[in-house]
Design brief:
Strand content: 5-15%
CATH class of the largest domain: Alpha Beta
CATH superfamily of the largest domain: Alkaline Phosphatase, subunit A
Structural class: alpha/beta
Order of helices and strands: EEHEHHHEEHEHHHHHEHEEEHHEEEEHH
Largest sheet: 10 strands, mixed
Oligomer: single chain
């Protein structure tokens, strides 16, 4: 039986009357937890946002007042996991409901051979909603979700960051405030309803350079010191295993251009104080993102749109921030794939705000959403989905499958690059399947930080979870056609990834 408990603040959600496409009325409900009309949909995805740095997910800092408020009105999935710790594959999974091995993109650099193109069994939510008469628009902030990746499929408006000659890491993306301004300008034009609006934010992604007042919003205190100890963050190990170019990306981004150019540059000490600064600035970027999200919600309310709009807030993946001797993402430990997932529906769909304790996956987002919208004639999209309705009446799968990014970086330590690696997170266990290495098992009940491998002591659990992983991998595997497309868009995308250090020996995701 699904384990649900009510949030502390329970709001009274009153069903609203049905309307005949009237702009001032909310969609009617069927009385069975679904919507009878076609509500607007706003999907917000945040790059590199680990769930446990949001206040509503237990972080002691007030990093997310606006996301917290959304959760107080809707449903918060406490244990949602991404399919991969990488931007493009994860976003494709969010927008198609398919695992990476099913949509065919296993790393960001996969798009250098050509962006995603939909086909039978590989359609996007935007395409399906556009066919249903929705106005579709996207406002994105980073290069790995640009038009070159194919994520613009189905969007009538696709607004992305442009920089003709990026010289710094900051040049490769735009801040949440700028993306929000573009999205709000589009809303101000009163787009035809119903609409699907996707907003993508980049701020928590390295380099963490929040502007004021967010840059100084958080200071080191005893709780931060305890967090560093709890996560076993060892700056001396980080300094040894990461090359100067990668260390600069996290700890001294102002030096990155010089290192990219092959010039000599002296890095600051990579010590505990550097880790403190990194964590404080990361939380500052989280707060900046939350502020931008709050502006979107405020605009929806000011324009009378909020009560007929479904709002979904999630992330593509997390960020290691020194945990497990790793700084970035691309891997599939908990800190890399545990993501926020909050859904807020118009009145009448839920009987009150709630927190879901079951383990869910990013591929469950679309089935959960579409189950509340049975009137949409999107049978082709529904048929391709690999996930489940996380709010349905039956037993949930209660596990999440993740896959490590396909990459080959000459500097990276070998213990985590020994061929493919897959993970299955369940209520009690975290299992890693390595076809070319040794499997691992962690008991999350006593070891949530995944520090002690207990595979040898639980051979039966390992075997059972291995069968479940192999079952997922055997479902509808897709192999994209080989060969790179030498187009101006592909070349520009390749150059941007090279600037970010994502290609060749420095390919990072």
């Amino acid at each position: 039986m699904r384990r649900l408990h009510l949030a502390t603040l329970c709001l009274l959600l009153l069903p609203l009357a049905a309307c005949d496409d009237a702009r001032d009325d909310a969609p009617a409900t069927t009385g069975a937890g679904t919507l009878a009309g076609k509500p607007n949909l706003v999907l917000v995805t945040v790059d590199t946002l680990r769930a446990d740095h949001l206040h509503c997910y237990g972080h002691w800092r007030e990093t997310s007042p606006n996301v917290d408020a959304l959760a107080d009105e809707g449903v918060l999935f406490e244990r949602a996991y991404s399919v991969m710790g990488t931007t493009l594959p994860s976003h494709l999974s969010i927008l198609t409901g398919l695992y990476p091995h099913q949509h065919g993109y296993l790393a960001n650099h996969g798009a250098m051979g050509g962006g995603f193109t939909s086909s039978a069994g590989r359609h996007t939510l935007a395409e399906a909603l556009a066919a249903e008469g929705y106005t579709t628009a996207a406002f994105v902030s980073g290069p790995t979700v640009s038009k070159a990746t194919g994520l613009d499929a189905g969007f009538q408006v696709f607004d992305e960051h442009h920089h003709p000659a990026p010289k710094t890491l900051e040049d490769t993306s735009r801040r949440s405030e700028d993306t929000t301004a573009a999205a709000l300008a589009w809303l101000a034009q009163a787009p035809r309803e119903p609409f699907f609006l996707w907003i993508h934010y980049w701020d928590p992604h390295e380099p963490n350079l929040p502007r004021e007042p967010f840059a100084s919003a958080f200071r080191t205190d005893e709780r931060l010191e305890a967090l560093i100890d709890e996560r076993v963050i060892r700056p001396e190990v980080l300094a040894e295993r990461f090359p100067p170019r990668e260390l600069a990306r996290l700890f001294a981004p102002e030096l990155a251009p010089a290192l990219d150019a092959g010039e000599d540059a002296t890095l600051p000490p990579i010590d505990r104080d550097a880790v403190r600064r990194l964590l404080n600035l990361y939380d500052g970027d989280v707060l900046a993102t939350d502020h931008a999200f709050g502006q979107v919600v405020a605009a929806l309310k000011a324009r009378g749109l909020y009560e007929r709009t479904v709002v979904v807030f999630t992330a593509d993946h997390g960020q290691a921030l020194g945990q497990h001797d790793w700084l970035e993402h691309g891997r599939i430990q908990g800190e890399d794939v545990h993501v926020p997932l909050v859904m807020r529906f118009p009145a009448g769909v839920l009987d009150g705000p709630r927190r879901v304790l079951d383990v869910v996956s990013s591929v469950d987002l679309l089935p959960t959403l579409l189950a509340r919208l049975p009137q949409l004639a999107v049978s082709d999209l529904r048929a391709q989905l690999s996930g489940e309705d996380a709010l349905g009446p039956g037993d949930l799968r209660n596990s999440a499958f993740s896959q490590r990014s396909a990459r080959d970086r000459d500097w990276e330590p070998g213990e985590d690059t020994d061929g493919p690696k897959f993970a299955l997170t369940t209520r009690d266990w975290k299992y890693y399947f390595r076809p070319e290495g040794t499997d691992e098992l962690y008991d999350l009940r006593v070891d949530p930080g995944e520090l002690h491998d207990v595979a040898d002591a639980h051979a039966d659990v390992v075997e059972a979870l291995r069968r479940r992983v192999l079952h997922v991998l055997d479902e509808r595997r897709y192999t994209p056609e080989a060969g790179a497309e030498d187009t101006p868009e592909a070349r520009a995308y390749r150059e941007m990834l090279d600037k970010l250090g994502y290609t060749g020996g420095a390919e990072r995701h």
